[in-house]
Design goal:
By secondary structure, the protein is of the alpha/beta class. The protein has a single domain, classed as Rossmann fold, CATH 3.40.50. 22% of the residues lie in helices and 24% in strands. The protein is built from 6 helices and 11 strands. The protein has a 6-stranded mixed β-sheet with strand order 3-2-1-4-5-10. A 3-stranded mixed β-sheet has the order 6-7-11, covered by helices on one side. The longest helix has 12 residues. It is globular. The N terminus is likely disordered.
Length: 245
């Protein structure tokens, strides 16, 4: 997932005003009686009755360093786990759920069109959260396949070109032997400035103003960095897949 952390609704900085879309999403999740989390990883959203994920191992989560999905933990939480991809036919009835939730997953998909169509089929409403254009460029992950925009009730998917993959360097790398995050000449400086999970503590101080602005937008779920697309009944999408490399 994008920067692979589940951010808290309340931030550490009381001066940060959380974006209204994120506030609205939290409210919708509390109101929903049945939630399906599409691309749940190891942490299905609170209130989910079903979690769906294709990657049991952390191949495309936590920069490849996270834990393997523990299906036994799902049972303890009363959540059914379904091991399947979300961009294929989902094994659910029409309108089976009140709300379908997908957090930083659609940018990974091979076939977002099928995912959009089936998400609407199985739920009455939902939310798709993805990196915004700006975030995808500065924090680019090599396993993300799409640049995504929203306009009104429509999502636009643009196939990423080679030069858009990791223009500022590679994601954080974790050294299991040293039990720490490591830097080299290819480390993305924007990850260093954001320092989201204490990856590079102290390095953000090299450019404190930019670091503070970046962190503020991140914790606020600013539309500059994150799309929070909430839909009811149905939504539109368009795929732009015929791009030159």
């Amino acid at each position: 997932m994008f920067l692979e952390s589940i951010k808290n609704f309340f931030t550490h900085d009381k001066d940060i005003e959380v974006d209204p879309r994120w506030v609205a999403l939290k409210k919708r999740l509390k109101q929903a009686h049945s939630i399906v989390d599409l691309g749940c990883g190891n942490n299905p959203v609170a209130g989910a009755v079903v979690g769906v994920d294709f990657y049991i191992d952390p191949k495309e989560r936590h920069a490849g360093t996270g834990p393997v999905i523990d299906t036994a933990q799902f049972k303890q939480r009363g959540v059914e786990f379904i091991h399947t991809r979300i961009d294929g036919p989902l094994p659910f009835k029409d309108k089976q759920f009140d709300f379908a939730y997908s957090h930083h997953v659609f940018e990974h998909l091979d076939d977002p069109q099928t995912a959009c169509r089936d998400m609407m089929r199985i739920a009455r409403a939902g939310a798709i959260i993805t990196p915004a254009f700006f975030a995808e460029h500065i924090f680019g992950r090599p396993y993300h396949r799409w640049l995504i925009m929203e306009r009104g009730n429509r999502l636009l998917f643009f196939r990423k070109r080679d030069f858009e993959q990791t223009p500022f360097g590679l994601p954080p790398k974790f050294d299991k032997n040293k039990n720490s995050w490591v830097m080299d000449d290819n480390t993305n400086p924007f990850d260093m400035l954001l320092n989201d999970e204490g990856w590079y503590k102290g390095q953000e101080g090299q450019m404190p103003k930019l670091s503070k602005i970046l962190q503020k937008h991140w914790h606020a779920h600013s539309p500059l960095l994150e799309i929070v697309f909430i839909w009811d009944n149905e939504f539109e999408w368009k795929i732009f897949d015929d791009v030159e490399k």
